[in-house]
């Protein structure tokens, strides 16, 4: 399992491309527990063209494995670097896709300034407005679909051409093995390719903001989340915007 802060190489590639993959970020046991949690949700069947039917939310309190990802050692130090010591969980959801399910078109891109989804670098480091952490609890092979992006588009100074869609050659599919984690800035132009895998796609997304900002309008912990069951550090991740409780990394 890969843990700890960015390595110099990871930081370089994250700044260059807008995302980086950590292979084997989850153990076999963690993956099994997360899949058990998703299976226990009794989700309705997905519909091929309905993106909304593929997403689920409000699940963090339904299984202890979901809460364990909040400050997982494979990502927490990276989050503090990118969002600062007042990092907070902005929102979280999961995606389940079956063969033939359609994806989500490209969105994001750094050509427009968004105070909730920015990406800047200065002499003090990288600063981000919204960071996405995607945990793969099922695997994908090249051509299966799933997460895709336009590498480097988080730094784009100009609007994308009108023909830039999911099938454009500039779009890169990012296959993820079971237990892999991809972290990306929401300023990156990204989307979801239609699913063509023979297995069901299952992925969990946790999105984080600096303590002084928010993308989501919902600042309440999920229903059923027992806050007293969380560690002090995990509880800090649910702080409201502008509440500046510094998050202990260790």
Q: Could you please describe the fold and organization of this structure?
A:
This protein is α+β, with helices and mostly antiparallel strands and 250 residues long. It has a single domain, classed as Sandwich (Jelly Rolls), CATH 2.60.120.620. The protein has six helices and twelve strands. The protein has helices at 8-17, 28-40, 51-54, 64-68, 76-83, 232-236, and strands at 19-22, 55-56, 88-97, 104-107, 119-122, 125-128, 131-136, 146-149, 172-173, 181-185, 190-193, 201-209. A six-stranded antiparallel β-sheet has the order 1-10-7-12-3-2. A four-stranded antiparallel β-sheet has the order 4-11-8-9, with no helix packed on it. Strands 5-6 form a two-stranded antiparallel sheet. Strand 5 and strand 6 (125-128) form a beta hairpin. It is globular, with a radius of gyration of 17 Å. The two termini are 17 Å apart. The model has no long low-confidence stretch (mean pLDDT 92).
Compile the SSE list and pairings:
Elements: H1 8-17, E1 19-22, H2 28-40, H3 51-54, E2 55-56, H4 64-68, H5 76-83, E3 88-97, E4 104-107, E5 119-122, E6 125-128, E7 131-136, E8 146-149, E9 172-173, E10 181-185, E11 190-193, E12 201-209, H6 232-236
Antiparallel strand pairs: 1-10, 2-3, 3-12, 4-11, 5-6, 7-10, 7-12, 8-9, 8-11
Keyphrases for this structure?
12 strands; Jelly Rolls; alpha+beta; 6-stranded antiparallel β-sheet; 4-stranded antiparallel β-sheet; 250 residues
